[in-house]
Amino acid sequence: MTLPPITDPRRKRILYRATHRGTKESDAIVGGYFSEIAGTIPDDKLDEADALLDEADLDLVDWIMGRQPVPDRWRNTLFDGVLAYYEKLAKRR
Known about the structure:
Blueprint: H1 9-19, H2 24-37, H3 46-54, H4 57-65, H5 78-92
């Protein structure tokens, strides 16, 4: 499936930050999720996306893999989508 090009500068920056995390795991999981949704993130969720991408890679991967509990601040947020994306990837294996 080919996604339409993202023209909004903020969404482009979010997508870049999500796909250039610094670890292969984060790039694949966080980047993969945001690659699918960057063009359609509701405007009222852009600050949340930026805040999520401010989190350290190691923390994100630990939360995604279940090695550490997900902080309450990330429950019922875009992070749930990241988790669902990871679970979808894991089922393909």
